Amino acid sequence: MAESFNQSRMNRCVRIQQSILENWQRTTVFEYTVKATEPIDGLSLSELRLQYFSVGVKDDLTDLPFTDTLVVFSMISQAIAALKAKVAAKEKEGQIRFSITTDFPDDVATQMLSQMKIETPFDDSPFLKIESLE
Asked: Within 10 A of 24 (CB to CB), how many other CB atoms are there?
């Protein structure tokens, strides 16, 4: 049974996004973990959409559905773009507004996955190979 994307799930996504960005700010290294929770080698994109991934920083991980994983990284991308714009405009303060969607068409989902390093501890290959999605 599919979960509805409610405030609790949104809060969980925000917490993980903030953890990744705060770690980056603290260490100056953009570091995160995305790890498959079961074998995913050879799965189609539609099958990957049914999977869960452990997401976070180092060993501080939370299991998220596929869509929530994309929400977290969409928010990270938006935050980075907003911060770059603030630096370019020489602004020191201000709010960052996010546009949140849970509807990721196949091309967008594939592009986002191709930009992530996804560990696959249950498969022969250590990382998800995007070409297997086609």
From this structure: 17
Q: What is the pLDDT of residues 4-50, one digit of tens each?
A: 889 999 999 999 999 999 999 999 999 999 999 999 999 999 999 99
What domain range includes position 66? 7-133
Q: Is there a domain that residue 2 lies in? A: no
Q: In this structure, is residue 62 part of a structural domain?
A: yes
Domains contained in the chain, number: 1
Q: Where are the beta strands (DSSP E) in the chain?
A: 33-36, 52-57, 60-65, 118-119
**Of 80, 78, 70, the residue nearest 116 (C-alpha):** 70
The answer as to whether 43 is a domain residue is yes
- For 52, the 3-state DSSP assignment is strand
Q: Is the pTM above the cut of 0.70?
A: yes
Q: Is residue 47 part of a domain?
A: yes
Torsion on CA atoms 44, 3, 108, 22, rounded to nearest 10: -120
The C-alpha atoms of residue 51 and residue 100 are separated, in whole angstroms, by: 20
Closest CA to 101 of 78, 74, 81: 74
Contact predicate 33/61, CB 8 Å: yes
